[in-house]
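The step that takes the researchers longest sounds almost clerical: writing a folded protein down as plain text. The outcome of that step, for a single protein, is printed below.
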Amino acid sequence: MLLEGKRILVTGGTGSMGKVFVRRVLSGELGTPKKVIVLSRDEAKQHTMRLSYLKRRAITDEVIYRNFENILEFRIGDVRNYADVCSAVRDADIIVNAAALKQVPTCEYFPMQAVLTNCIGPSNVVRAIQEHGFPVETVMGISTDKACKPVNAMGMTKALQERIFIAANILIPQTRFLCVRYGNVLASRGSVIPLFHEQISSGGPVTITVPEMTRFLLSIDRAVDTVFAALGTGHRGETFVPIVPSATVIAIAKALIADRDIAIKVTGIRPGEKMHEIMVSEEECHHVVKRGNYHVILPMLPELRVPGIACEPSLKSEYSSADNVMTLDQTRSLLTEYGLMVGDVRLTDGGELLR
């Protein structure tokens, strides 16, 4: 099986997607891994995650000291630090780079911090493999719809991450580098749905930017499915994009409010935001193929084209969240399907939603 006996490094593994990815990898659905290493710089999040696996309220020194003997291993470190990256990469067969600064306004105010995490971090991964000859089989970059025709610092730095990893296939041909690119993950830390839940629980108002603004919506498990699909069927330099629905922010707000007497307040577009997100640009659509439930962007670098894969584009124009927008009823049904209606979930201290 795909992950049987593999050593998997997840940078930023205590984040929303990272935690679900780790949980599903450890479930054995793609084989039993030899080791799963979580590299992140927040010891509190690692502590909480460790406890969730131990199912204990307190942790002993004995468990901490046996960290390196377990299948799930936690390492304090930062992708910005080359030494930290080298130490973790040397022990990995597969690397999933989920470490990121992903809040648009934060990256607008602190763009250099976004560069350090979202660009220098991936560069450190590539440099570690190249300079030390570590036998890494696959590196997966986790990207975002904001990297497509970016207008904000977060999207610009994630677009550079994509280029850093794709170009690394030329420098390090023995390692497969590829990416996934997806939109808003429902109920992830810092996303709009936990904010709306909190505002509704407090009696409102629910604040939206612009009513007509649209966003792609996918569950966190769908995001992990995208990573698994790319790991299983992706070729060097490809970028996997899930085919998912989109909705207006006003529809999301109204669906969650339901019949409650709660006001909606329009606050205006935030710094660096787009009205509509794009997952495949009009330039990229000419070398995109459909593979299952995914659009796969083939690499533009000619050296990375796989002989025999004919490019019959699956798209004739850009793939935008403004296309095929769900109605209010459809939005409500989707949120209900994922158990994200108010009352179905609760907020954690970290701002995530839990059933």
Q: What stands out?
A: The chain has eleven helices and 18 strands.
